[in-house]
Fold these 4 entries.
Entry 1:
Amino acid sequence: MENSHPAIIERDMWELVQVEMKRRDNLGAKYSATDIFSSKLVCSDCGGFYGKKKWHSNTAYERFVYQYNSKFQKGKCRCQTPHLTEAEIKEKFIEAYNLTIEDKERITNDLKEVINLLTDTTELEKGIEQINAELSVVVELAAKTIKENSKSNEDSIDYENKYQSLVNGMKH
C-alpha cells in the first residue's frame, strides 16, 4: 500500500537505496563494509573482492593486509594478485586521485557551476510569488462573498456553491 502515511524518508533517497541494494545483489558475492576498503578492492585476475586479513596473529609480526578473499580456498581460483597493505592502498589512491585532478581549476569551476544550477531558486521563488498573489485574490474574493452573504438574504445553497468554488480554486 503506497501513500497511506507520511514518508519516513524521501522517495528519491529510497529509490537510490534500492538501486544500491540491487547493485550489491548483482555483485555475485557477499557485500561487506566492515572497514573502509572492504568490498571495494577487486582482484584484477578474477573480479573477486579483497578483504582485510590478520597475518601472524598474537605475535610480534602481527599485521593486517588485504588479499583476495578466496585466494587459499580449495576449488577456487588461484589468482596471482598480490596482497596489499593499507599504506600501499592509500598511496595508490592518492596517486590515482592526483592524476584525476591535474586540471583542478577546471574541475572546481565545473563543480561550482553545478552547485549554482542545483541551488538556484529564482524560478521557484517566482512561482511562489505567483501562487501567493493568486491566493491573495482568492482570499479577498472569499472574504467578499462571506461579507455579502451576511448582508443579504441570498439562498444558503447559492452562497455555499460560490464559497466552495472559491475554496476549490485555491486547492488547484
Note: Helices lie at 11-25, 86-100, 104-119, 122-151, 156-171.
Entry 2:
Amino acid sequence: MEVTVQASQLIERGDKSSRRVALAECDRDVAAASLVLRRSDILAASANAFRQSHG
C-alpha cells in the first residue's frame, strides 16, 4: 500500500503580505466612503422629493 500526502502553503516573501493587507484596507476605505456618498445622495433625493410634494 502506498499513500501520498501533499500540503501546500503560500509563503510570501518580502513585504508582499503587508502590501496586500494595505491594499485590502484601502479597498475597504473606498467602499466605506462610497457608502457615505450613496447615503447622502439618497437623503438629498428624499428631501427634494418631500419639498416638491409639499411645495
Note: The mean pLDDT is 94.
Entry 3:
Amino acid sequence: LLENAGSDVVGELDLQRKRVSGELPDIFQALCDQLPASLSDLLAFLSRLDDPFPKSLLLTLLKPLGFGKKAYQAWLDKGLMDEVRWLGEDFVQISWQPWKAFLRQHTSIERMRTVLEILKSRLGRRPQQFPLELSSHFFEAGDHETALTLAFQEAQDFERFGEGRRALERYAFLRRNLFRFPSREIALAAVLKKMGLLQKQLGLYENAFESFRELRESLKRSQREEWITVSLEMADALFQMDALSEALYQIKEIKIKDSVSSYAYAFSNILMGELEQNFGHARYALRYYEKALAILPRVQDERLMMRLYAILKQIYSGANDLDKYISLIVQINQLLPDTSSFKPEIQLELIKCYVHRNDFAAALPHAVAAFRHSRTVFTPRIAARVRLYLAEIYGYFGKWYLSRSYLRRICQTPVLLAHPRFQVQVMTTLGIVEKELGHYGAALELLQQALDVCERQRLVREKYQIRVHLGHIYLLVHGLMRARDHLSETLTWAEAAQDEALIIQASL
C-alpha cells in the first residue's frame, strides 16, 4: 500500500527513515500517522458501520471535510475503502477486515463527531432506498436526541425491508433509553405497541406479552379503547403460547360490548372462535368467525382480514364448500387496497378457484386485472402463475395463439421457471397448445423436454401425465406402436396408484 501510494501518503525521505515491522498493526499505525485528520475522522466513522454507506451520501460529505472527488478516487485506488454495487445503487465500505478492525479499535469515538455533525444536516433530504443504522453512533457520540429520532425511523425501515430482528433491536434500544432521555417526538407507548406486534410476528410471544402488559400499565383511565385493544393483543399472545384458559379469562375480563370499535369487536370474535375451535367446539367457533366476517368491511386492518381468511379457508376447504370459499375470497379481494402486499395472493387464489370450477368466463377478468398489476407489484412466482392461468383460460376459449404467447413469455424469462414442477407444467401446457395448432413436431419436442425434467427430478405423476399427451399425439400422426407403449404403461401405473383421472385419460 505504501509503495503504490508513494509520496502522496508519505514523503520519500520520511519513507526512507521509517523502520516498520512486517506486522499489520504496525503498518496500519504508520499509515494512520501520515493521514490527514479529516480522512482519519471519515475512516473512523466508516469502520464502525455495519451497513454499506451510500456513495451519494458520502460524496456530500467530501467538501465540508476539505476533499474533492479526486481525493475520493485516490482512496479507492489505495484500498483505504471500497465501492460495492447492490440492486442498482453504489455503496462505500471498508471491506478488508484486518484494516477495519484496526481502525475500529485504535480510533476514538470522538473522531466521528465531525462527520456526524456534517451528516446530521444531510439526513432526510433524500430518502434512502435501503435501511442504514446510524442511531447507535450518534448515541455514542453524545447526540441522544438525534439518536432516538433516527432509531425510530430505522426500526420502521428495517421492518419495511423485512429485517425484523434488526427492527426489534432498534425498538429495544428506544425502550431502554426513552426513560433516560425523554423525547417529545417519540412516545414510549408507540414503541411498545410496534415492538409487541413485531415480537408476535417473529414468534416471540412471551416477549410480546410483556411488551403489551407494560403498554397497558402506561395507559390512563380515559384510554378505554386502547386498553381493550392492548388486552386483546395480550390474550392473543397467551393463545399463541397455548395458554388457552388464561387467554379465555383475559378476553372475558375485557367484557366486550357492541359499543367498542369495529376492530376490537372483530378481533375478540376471532380469538373466541380460535379458542372454541381448540376446545373442540367447531359450531360455536364458526359462529364467532361469521360474526367477525360480517363486520370486516368496517375494519381497516389487513393482517386481521388475512388471519380470518386463513381460518375460514381451512374450514370451507375441509367441508368442500367451494361456493362459500369463493364468496370469502371475493369479499377479501374487494376489501384489500390495490397497494396491499396480500392482494396478489388473494387474486391468484380467486383465479385458481374459478379455473378449478371450470368457470373460465368468471376467471378471465380477474386474470387480466392481475396480469396488469403483475408488471409492477407482483413477485416473479405470482407473475408466472398469472400468465399460466391466462394461457389456460385463453386455451379454453380456443384462442391458441394468444395462449401460446403467454407461455412463450414465461419460457423466455428463466427466473419464472425456477421451480422444476412449475417448469414441467408450463412446458406441458405449451406442448398441448402446439398440438391444438397442429404443430405436432413442436409439441412432441416440448413434451419430451418436459419428460426429461420429470426423469431428473423424479416427478412420477407428472411423467405419466405427459406420456398420456405423447400417446395422443402419436395417435394423431399414426405412430400407433409408440402411442400404445406410452398409454399402456401409463394405464398400468395409474391402476397401481389408483389414480382415477389418469386411468380415464389413458383408457380413452
Note: Residues 440-457 form the longest helix (18 residues).
Entry 4:
Amino acid sequence: KRENRLEYKVVDAFTPYFQYSHGFRAPSVQQLYGYFQRGNQQYIIGNPSLKPETSRNFELGFKGQTADFNYQVTGFVNKYKNFISRRIDRTTDSGYAYFSYANQKDAKIYGFAANGKVKFYNNYHVFASIAYAKGSQTDDLGVYSSMNSTDPLKTSLGFSYETQVWGGKVTWNWTDKRDTKDLNVGANMYNPTKAYSTVDLDFYWKPLKSLTLGAGISNLFDTKYVDWSNISYYYTNFFEANGGVSGVTEANADSFTEPGRTFYVTLRYDF
C-alpha cells in the first residue's frame, strides 16, 4: 500500500489533512483453494479464478491534540477494482449451503468516522466515537447493487479513570439496525438485525512497569443481538435467483446471536 499525505498544523488543536493511497490485495490461499466445513450445513469453497483486488483511497479530515483532549474527524471514499467478496453460491436438495468468493468489477465504499477524548478532572476522561459507511458494487455482467458487507451506524460513549498504575473504563456501545431497503437481498430474506446497545467494563493494574494485568466484562447486561458483519454474506439476490433458500430465517435466527455476558482476564508483558 502506497500513501501520500498532506497536512498543515494551524494550531495544536486543529490540523486539517488530505491523504491518498493506492492499495493492492492478492487473494489468500483460503480464498483461492480452501475447502472448509463450518457446522453441519455450511461449506466454504475457494475460487482459483480470483483476481487481485486494487483500490484508490481518498481521505479528508482534521484532528487536534492538547494536554487535555484529542480528536479526529474523517471522511473517506474508497474505490476498488476486482473487489473480493464472499457470497452464498448454491444449495443442494438436502439444504447444504455453499459459500464461495467472487470478484466484483467495481466497488465503492464511502463514509465518515470521528472520535475524541477529553480529560475533564485530574485522571478522569470522557471519550466517544461514531462511524458510518455505505457501499455499492458492479459485477462482471454490469449489474449494479448495494454492498451488503458494510456495517450500520455505530457509536460509543465512555468514561474512564487512568493512572500509570491502575485504571478502568465503562463503555456504552450503540449499533443501528441494518435496514433491508438499503441491501441487495432476495425477496424472501429474513433480516434479524435490530438496533441494540451493550455496556462493557475494563480494568487494568500495572504491578510492574513492564507487566499489565487486565480484567473485564463484555456485554454487561447480557443483551441479545445479531452482528450484521457475521451474517451479511447470506444476503444476495444471486443466491435466491439460482434456486437457493435463505440461510437466515425467523426460525433459526437465534443461532446467529452473539455471545452474552462474558468475563475475561488478560496478561501483557512488554520487553
Note: The two ends are 29 Å apart (CA to CA).
